[in-house]
Automatic annotation (TrEMBL):
Keywords: Allosteric enzyme, ATP-binding, GTP-binding, Kinase, Multifunctional enzyme, Nucleotide-binding, Transferase. GO terms for biological process: CTP salvage; UMP salvage. In the C-terminal section; belongs to the UPRTase family. In the N-terminal section; belongs to the uridine kinase family. Residues 49-235 form the Phosphoribulokinase/uridine kinase domain. The gene is LOC107920627. Residues 265-311 form the Phosphoribosyltransferase domain. Pfam families: PRK, UPRTase. This is Uridine kinase. One of its GO terms (molecular function) is cytidine kinase activity. It comes from Gossypium hirsutum. SUPFAM superfamilies: P-loop containing nucleoside triphosphate hydrolases (SSF52540), PRTase-like (SSF53271). It catalyses: uridine + ATP = UMP + ADP + H(+); cytidine + ATP = CMP + ADP + H(+).
Length: 430
């Protein structure tokens, strides 16, 4: 349905003038409507890039492995910042114990950026294989990394350079206590890397500890998610994986249709989808859950209608109605139409500005003492009027007397530019 027909429909129902409900028809008509196959061919799939940072031996690699394991049905690649250590010169090699491997300058960030940009644009890259024993990245052959749906970039300082941060869709910081990190580091460096414990402790006190305080910890503020206890935190990892899956699901469609908004999938939504697909579901439950799903779509859509900010005094009339989605809309239009005809009639500026539906949770917050909005089929709408258009006493009188026969209550809140009148009333249909 185009913008014109929406306006026509409501104008037809009301016979009144709309000032707020204006969709720009020309804009809508100009929106490209790509044919699906063509669009899919032309759209370059941008990978979902996740950054995983945290102190050395905090459990970054462990967390990445767990995410990759759970995303086994997706194409995921792991890129380690370690691979981009500068190769040590002969001079540096001679005094390797004085080399600070925890300073941002020890990494070839330009090369890392270059590789990430290529991957982002769908090109395979060769990632160096840094050797911790020889301190060189030319001993082992480079690793070929193909473009993927998800790229995980892991390392102690990957949040340090803003250009690298900007590449990321999600930033995770693994937060593990310093003593745990040190204990793990000692075990790893002595057992796996064959280093002397004295050298490990010396490196820790000389460089690792201060670099963590000076360079790594300050980047924690950039993280979207902070995971305490690293790989032991299964709840955090499950939530991260769930979020990545949601984002991956939205990726393709949103790129094909730039004006497409995908409602976030929740347990509740998935549950309702399951119920309406189940052949055992009763007719009554099918209608009930289908209706709830339709409402969520309508509600979400209303939130995306274009609007213009206005200064002035406004009145928000809050109405709760019961019945199926289409009935509710008709009922609200009926109330609004009556208000326009009987209350605002004769006013030069009689203007209905906007109409919207309120989330049941929000409604019940406002109305918990007045009305049980959680009742089956019950939901709330609001109508915004310009205050100049309406005589308040007339409005209340009319609401009380005519619109609903048995109003339960109302109350008002005043803001400088907005006067809110919450109206709770039972509408008829069962
Ligand atoms: N939750 C954990 N419990 C016990 N040991 C762990 C845990 N997470 C990691 N480790 C161990 O600690 C060391 C460092 O972990 P790793 O994930 O490689 O950290 P990072 O990538 O941050 O250096 C490894 O030897 C690993 O096996
Ligand atoms: O040649 C090297 C290069 C690096 N290190 C240390 O490694 C950690 C970072 O690696 P994680 O896997 O994130 O723990 C860093 O603290 C460096 O000091 C090294 O010892 N030798």
């Amino acid at each position: 349905m185009d913008s014109k027909s929406v306006e026509d429909m409501i104008e037809g129902l009301s016979g009144f003038h709309f000032s707020g409900f204006h969709m720009d028809g020309s804009k809508l008509n100009n929106i490209e409507k790509p044919t699906t196959t063509l669009a899919i061919e032309n759209v370059h799939k941008q990978p979902f890039i996740i950054g995983v940072s945290g102190g050395a031996a905090s459990g970054k690699t462990t967390v990445c492995d767990m995410i990759i394991q759970q995303l086994h049905d997706q194409r995921v690649v792991l890129v380690n910042q370690d691979s981009f250590y500068h190769e040590l010169t002969e001079e540096e090699l001679a005094t390797v114990h004085e080399y600070n491997f925890d300073h941002p300058d020890s990494f070839d960030t330009e090369k890392l950026l270059d590789s990430m940009e290529n991957l982002r644009h769908g090109q395979a890259v060769d990632i160096p294989n840094y050797d911790f024993k020889s301190y060189k990245n030319s001993v082992f052959p480079a690793r070929r990394v193909n473009p993927s749906d998800v790229i995980i970039l892991e390392g102690i300082l990957i949040f340090h350079d803003p250009r690298v941060r900007e590449l990321m869709n999600m930033k995770i910081f693994v937060d593990t206590d310093a003593d745990v990190r040190l204990a793990r580091r000692i075990r790893r460096d002595t057992v796996e890397k064959g280093r002397d414990i004295g050298v490990v402790l010396d490196q820790y006190s000389k460089f690792v500890k201060s670099a963590f305080d000076d360079f790594i910890l300050p980047t924690k503020k950039y993280a979207d998610i902070i995971i305490p206890r690293g790989g032991d935190n299964h709840v955090a990892i499950d939530l991260i994986v769930q979020h990545i899956r949601t984002k991956l699901g939205q990726h393709d469609l949103c790129k094909i249709y730039p004006n497409l908004y995908v409602i976030q999938s929740t347990f509740q939504i998935r549950g309702m989808h399951t119920l309406i697909r189940d052949s055992q579901t009763t007719k009554h439950d099918f209608v009930f859950y289908a209706d709830r799903l339709i409402r969520l779509v309508v509600e979400h859509g209303l939130g995306h209608l274009p609007f213009t900010e206005k200064q002035g005094l406004y009145i928000l009339v809050w109405i709760s109605v019961r019945g199926y989605a289409v009935y509710q809309l008709l009922e609200v239009v009926r109330v609004w139409r009556m208000l326009c005809e009987h209350v605002a009639k004769g006013s030069r500026l009689a203007r209905f500005l906007f109409i919207g539906k309120v989330r049941t949770t929000v409604s019940s917050l406002f109305m918990k003492n007045y009305h049980k909005t959680s009742q089956k089929g019950m939901c709330c709408y609001w109508i915004l009027f310009s205050a100049r258009a309406i005589q308040l006493s007339k409005l209340f009188h009319y609401l009380q007397e005519r619109v609903y026969r048995n109003p339960t209550s109302y109350f008002s809140i005043s803001y400088p530019h907005l006067r809110v009148y919450m109206w709770c009333a039972k509408a008829s249909q069962e």
